[in-house]
Every structure is written in structure tokens, then in C-alpha cells.
Amino acid sequence: MTAPLRLVIFDVDGTLVDSQGDIVAAMTHAFARADHPAPDHSAVLGIVGLSLDVAIPRLAPGLPDTTHAEIVQAYKDAYMGLRAQSGVAASSPLYPHARDTLEALHAVPETLLGVATGKSMRGLDKLLDGHALRHLFVTRQVSDHHPSKPHPSMIQAALSETGVAPENAVMIGDTSFDMEMARAAGVRGIGVSWGYHAPEALGAASAILNDFRDLPGLLDQLWR
Q1: What radius of gyration do the chain's Cα atoms show?
Q2: Where are the beta strands (DSSP E) in 53-148?
Q3: What CA–CA distance (Å, rounded) separates 94 from 89?
Q4: Domains of the chain: total
Q5: Which helix (H) or strand (E) holds 16?
Q6: Where does a domain end: 60, 90, 120?
Q7: Which are the contacts of 88, defined by CB distance < 8 A and separation ≥ 6?
Q8: pTM, 2 dp
Q9: pLDDT tens track for 24-41
Q10: Does residue 1 form part of some domain?
Q11: Structural domain span for residue 53
Q12: Which of 167, 102, 172 is nearest to 138 (CA)?
């Protein structure tokens, strides 16, 4: 009997790479450009994963829409500048054992890999190319084409593109937005303990992963 196709969808920031240094620095710069006090470190990490047009109003709800838009653009400019300055590997290093685990999963013929991220396609492609990972992912869902997480649109599109049934897909992420998105799309969610939301905030997760190397075995358990 032929094994069904399976889809493993990954969040990026806080799940595959640790980009918090540049995220916080870029946000601090963006708010300074708008002459508004910057949110604290924990507040900034709390919105990682949301699309910027949703995240910025959450961080500064009292500001007008025009200022929100200015902060969004200033953040994008600052983030790109920081990444160009230090390079992708230093700016957004992979978490331990991420690469080996991705390659091991990719080597299984029935397993497809995807991405669902609040990044733009330009930002995602630069990140994946900087780490030489683009070839591993057959579907890449970004904020350019979808409502912000936790809306299920990204996962729904990934399922449609790959032809994988929801019961044969899983979303892996570090935030409550990822887990809520997975639940809304009817797929299981696996939370990671090393990201930007505390594990106890990932209440909708089917399991919590503490080490990337444990992911293949955990997937086998979920799909057995």
C-alpha cells in the first residue's frame, strides 16, 4: 500500500532561525523614526509571526493609520539594512540541528516541506537563499498573499498546492498564532520550546518539541 503524501509546514522566525536581535533593533529604529517610544523587548517578540500591518497597531494602538504605515516601512528598511550589514547567517542563524533535520525529512519521498511565515516573499527568499535552503520547500506562504496569522489561509493554500489532506499535515511553530492557525485549518500543530512565545502559551499544540532532532520520531508517532 502506497504511503500518503505528508506535509510539514514550518514557521520561520523563532522556529527555524533566531532573528530576534535584528527584529528588536529594527523595531526600535522604526519607532524612533516616528518619534514614538519603542515597545519593550518582550512586547516586540510577542507580535513576531503577525503580518506587520497587524503587528504595528497592536504595539502602538493609539497612533493614526498613517503613522502605523510609516513605522511598517521604516521597519522593513531597517531590517533589510541590518541583514545586509551582517549577512543572513549572522543576522538570522539557524537553530541547532535545524538544517540536518530539514534535510532528513526532505530525504523521505512521501514527506513534503513548506513554510508559512509573516515575512514577505522577498524577505523569505533572501533568508532561504542565504542558508541554501530554498530547494527543500515545495510551498512557501507569505504575508504578501494572505491575511495575517492566525487566519488559516496560509495553511489552506499550502494544502491546496500540494494536494495533501489536512489529517496528513502538521504546522510547526513557536507562537500561539501558529498553533491557532493550525487549529483553524484543521491540521495538527507542534510547538517548539526555543522560540518567542513561552511553551505554556501554545495551548493548542498537539505536542511541544524541545530538540529539533526529535521531530522525525514525533511525526512518526502522530501519524502512526
Answers
A1: 17
A2: 111-116, 139-141
A3: 8
A4: 2
A5: none
A6: 90
A7: 126, 127, 129, 130, 131
A8: 0.93
A9: 999 999 999 999 999 999
A10: no
A11: 19-90
A12: 102
Compute how many other C-beta atoms are within 10 angstroms of the C-beta atom of residue 95.
Answer: 18
Q: Answer whether residue 171 is part of any domain.
A: yes
Q: Average pLDDT, stretch 201-212?
A: 93
Is residue 131 located within the same domain as residue 200? yes
pLDDT at 86 (0 to 100): 86
Task: Say which residue the cell 505528508 belongs to.
Answer: 6
Give tens-digit pLDDT for 44-80: 999 998 999 999 999 999 899 999 999 999 999 999 8
Exposed (0-12), middle (13-18) or buried (19+): which is 35, by Cβ within 10 Å?
exposed
Closest CA to 212 of 224, 200, 198, 195: 195
Looking at the structure, tell me whether residues 73 and 123 fall in a common domain: no
φ/ψ of residue 114, rounded to 5: -140, 170
Give dist(CA 128, CA 19) in Å, integer.
Answer: 13
535584528: which residue's cell?
A: 22
CB 207 within 8 A of CB 218: yes
Shared-domain flag, residues 130 and 60: no
Cell digits for 169?
499535515
Compute how many other C-beta atoms are within 10 angstroms of the C-beta atom of residue 135: 10
C-alpha dihedral (83, 123, 95, 167), degrees to nearest 10: 170
Grid coordinates given for 140 = 512557501
For residues 151 and 164, membership in a common domain is answered with yes
